[in-house]
Amino acid sequence: LQALIKASYFYNEQENVFLVKEQQKIRFVIDRLGLNSVSEFKPDSKVIEYVLGVNRHGPLQSSTITQFVESIGSRTSSPGGGSVAALVTALGVSLGQMTGWMTYGSKKHEQCEASIKTILPTLHKTIDQLLPLIDADAMAFNNYLVAQKLPGSAADGADQRRKEALDEALLTIIHVPMKIMELGSSCWAGIETLSQSYNTSLKSDLQVAVKCLEAGIWGAYKNVMINLDDVSDESMKQDLAGKARKLMEHTETMAPRLLAQLEQ
Fold first, then answer.
1. CA 113 to chain centre
2. Could you write out the three-class secondary structure of the chain?
3. What is the pTM of this model?
4. pLDDT tens figures, 134-150
5. Mean pLDDT over residues 105-119, rounded?
6. Which has more confidence, 178 or 17?
């Protein structure tokens, strides 16, 4: 996205064009770079920030709790476990953030105010990054289903285009839950710091935070691993599996440790 925005600045200056809205800049630079010359360049499926839903509120994120639960329970495979994993992870981080806010400003815990002031912005940013992944996971899966339905014929090269579309869609449905794992795992250090000195009236809330974070990361891990079976590039498959296992192992270490600490 940033590469396209920077390119738009160059063409804007060259042609003395004044554009403000992001979508205007994107459409402008797509035209100037000739990205539509072979086939239609769709930013929603080609720009990674849009695929991941960054800075956008998709239909699931914007829905009510009731609507979201009903959509999960409907007779369709999407939204499914990946979207739930993203939400559960975000809820865990949110409870950690709440604990931090309810501890901050207390005389009893003034010695840890500096660390809490550092932790809170990080947790808040992580929540903002996690929420769009609720929609991104569902969209990635839907795109994969569309790619599966593409016609394939060796005679006109359609089979190769279908394979490329499937490979691209498959990697997206792996990368989205991997991102959930990365974001969730990045919060363990902050949650651990909070658990060492916090408003103890929020003990159960912080315990739920740990369990939600653990469950969300575990759910994302399972989504990564089940889709890795279809990756044909063995080297890439091993790299992604190793990365996912490392993140999961970190969670398997942190969650029990923090829960034991909070029980003391």
1. 29
2. CHHHHHHHHHHHHHHCCCCCCHHHHHHHHHHHCCCCCCCCCCHHHHCHHHHCCCCCCCHHHHCCHHHHHHHHCCCCCCCCHHHHHHHHHHHHHHHHHHHHHHHCCCHHHHHHHHHHHHHHHHHHHHHHHHCHHHHHHHHHHHHHHHHHCCCCCCCCCHHHHHHHHHHHHHHHHHHHHHHHHHHHHCCHHHHHHHHHCCCHHHHHHHHHHHHHHHHHHHHHHHHHHHHHCCCCCHHHHHHHHHHHHHHHHHHHHHHHHHHHHHHC
3. 0.75
4. 999 998 888 888 887 77
5. 82
6. 178
